[in-house]
Each structure stands twice: as C-alpha cells, then as structure tokens.
Amino acid sequence: MKQKKTIVITGGASGIGLAITRLFADKGHQVIFLDFNSNSGNQVAEEFKAKGGDVTFIQTDVSDLNSVKTAFDQIPETIDVLVNNAGISHVGNLEDTSEEDLDRLFQVNVKGVYTCSIEAIPKLRTNGGGSIINMCSVAASMGLPDRFAYSMTKGAVLSMTLSIARDYVAEQIRCNCISPGRVHTPFVDGFLAKNYPGQEKEMFAKLAATQPIGRMGKPEEIAAMVYYLASDEASFITGSNFPIDGGFLGLKA
Ligand code: NAD
After folding, report:
1. Which family does the UniProt entry place this protein in (predicted)?
2. Cα separation of 203 and 197, whole Å?
3. 133 lines ligand 1 (CB under 6 A)
4. Is 198 exposed, middle or buried (0-12, 13-18, 19+ CB in 10 A)?
5. Cα dist. 174→109, 146, 230 in Å?
6. Which alpha helices (DSSP H) does the chain contain, by range?
7. Where are the domains positioned within the chain?
8. Cα separation of 223 and 17, whole Å?
9. pLDDT, tens only, 27-65
10. Which residue in 67, 74, 175, 195 has its CB near the most CB atoms, within 10 A?
11. What is the pLDDT of residues 110-123, one digit of tens each?
12. 171 CA to centre of ligand 1 in angstroms
C-alpha cells in the first residue's frame, strides 16, 4: 500500500465510519471525513490531531450537492480512496412509509453516494485511479422485514456500485460495496431506544441471535474490509459486493 494515501470518508464521526477513520489514521494515512454532525465531528478530529493523526473534519450534508461541492473544494486535487459510508434507517413496511420518509432515505442513502462520487471522480482520475467503497447492507440482497425504504435505498447502492465500477474500470477506478449484517453502533442503539423503549437489552439480544454466528458485528470488522479494498492488494477487485454478516446471507437456507 502507498505509504500515505488520502482517503475521504462520509459519516466518519460515528459507528462504522469512526472505526474506518481510526484504522486509516492509526496507519498513518491522511483522512478527511465529512459528517453532518459537527459536535461529534469536531470532537473526533481533535482527538486524532492530539495523537498526531492527519485527520480533518468538514461539516457536510451528503444529501445536498452544494454542501458536498463546498467540502470537496477544500479537499486536495488528488485522492486515493472515497468511502461512501453515511446512511440513515427507517422502520416500516411499504404502507408504514410516508412519501416524506421515502424522500429522506433516498436523499441521504442514494443521493449521498451520487453527490460524493461525482465530486470524487476527478480527484481519483488525477491520481491515475483509486478505490470507491460504498456501505451497502444485507438488506439490498434480501429485503429486510419492515425496512421497505432502507432495503430499497441499499438496493440502489448495490446498483450504483456496479454501474460506477463498469463505467470507470478503464480508468483504474475500482468500485465495490460491503454489505454488513447487524453491527453494534449508535445506529443500532438509536433504533432500539426509539422503537423499543425500556426493552433495549432484550431486543439487543434478539437482534444478535438472528445472526448465525450468535452476535452482532463490531465496527472494526467492517473497517478491516474497507482497508483491504482500499489497498493495492485489492487491485484486481471491482464491481463486487462483500457481505460481512456473521453468515446471515450465506447460511440462511
Ligand atoms: P451511525 O448512525 O453510527 O453513523 C452514521 C454517521 O453518518 C453519523 O455520524 C451521522 O452523523 C452521519 N450522517 C447521517 N446523515 C448524514 C448526512 N446527510 N450527511 C453527512 N453525514 C451524515 O451508523 P453506522 O451503523 O455506523 O452505519 C454506517 C453505514 O453502515 C450506514 O450506511 C448504514 O446503512 C450501514 N449499515 C449499518 C449496519 C449496522 O447494523 N450498524 C448494517 C448494515 C449497514
């Protein structure tokens, strides 16, 4: 792996994104993370800078092209890696999903990949190629129960991954996605607090038990795959989807 790569990551202030920020920063790479949440973003950046890490936070709403353009104006002309990780969830089947819910999920989970990728491509091109890694979900391949809008948007992330991979393969810009199963992050804690107040512990155990491996994943277990896909060792991999899910998809039948 190039000694010091420049990596741009969205949603790098929490959960899986934070683990990715940490892994790349600890290995001496330059990390620029875009996140909506300025409180945790600034806090995370300060924490890494205090340890000598080359970490920059730019407050950005990935669903807003102007906000993303402003962020990318502050990013070097050449980057090696883009990780489209920011995402939000919604609980409900088709009839429980309002037009507003649908639009909100689409704006962040789908348009957010478009806005950042379209801004990143020229900077990856200047680099002579690079790697785009999209955070998908097992929901894209199996339609999680009661997650109509979420499954739909992650299905689009999978399709966008294939489309980008195909259109930019000749320029050595690789594009892959990772489909995590349940991973213990604030995303999961927030979901439990909102939907099962007072029953969080019990529901956490139930969710963990749905994974064949018997537990939820750790953010670091997803970050490790991102690190590999960003590396030169993965130079022959593009247009692929990698489930990291404790056997959730593969061992179901
Ligand atoms: P998280 O909620 O812990 O972190 C998400 C981060 O994205 C937060 O820092 C948040 O501020 C940021 N974000 C949200 N909307 C944004 C916006 N409009 N602009 C910029 N930043 C924004 O979530 P997580 O569990 O770490 O999930 C990260 C990704 O992994 C998501 O795409 C999610 O769909 C996917 N995923 C998570 C799980 C899981 O079980 N945790 C499973 C499968 C897929």
Report:
1. Belongs to the short-chain dehydrogenases/reductases (SDR) family.
2. 10
3. no
4. exposed
5. 20, 33, 9
6. 15-26, 38-50, 65-73, 99-105, 112-126, 139-142, 148-168, 186-195, 200-209, 219-230
7. 6-181+218-244, 184-216
8. 8
9. 999 999 999 999 999 999 999 999 999 999 999 999 999
10. 175
11. 999 999 999 999 99
12. 29
Nearest Cα residue to 135 out of 226, 248, 38:
226
Which pLDDT does position 210 carry in this prediction?
Answer: 87
CA of 139, closest atom in ligand 1: 43
86 CA to centre of ligand 1 in angstroms: 4
**Total length of the chain:** 253
How many Cβ atoms sit within 10 Å of the Cβ of residue 201?
10
Active site residues: 150
Q: Is 168 in contact with 175 (CB distance < 8 Å)?
A: yes
Q: Tell whether ligand 1 has an atom less than 6 A from the beta carbon of residue 15.
A: yes
Q: Whose CA is nearest to atom 34 of ligand 1?
A: 87
3-state secondary structure of 226: helix
Token match 């924490």: residue? 47
Q: Would you state the structure tokens that stand for residue 205, as one six-digit string?
A: 């155990």
Separation of 185 CA from ligand 1 center, angstroms?
Answer: 9
Q: Does any ligand 1 atom lie closer than 6 A to the CB of residue 81?
A: no
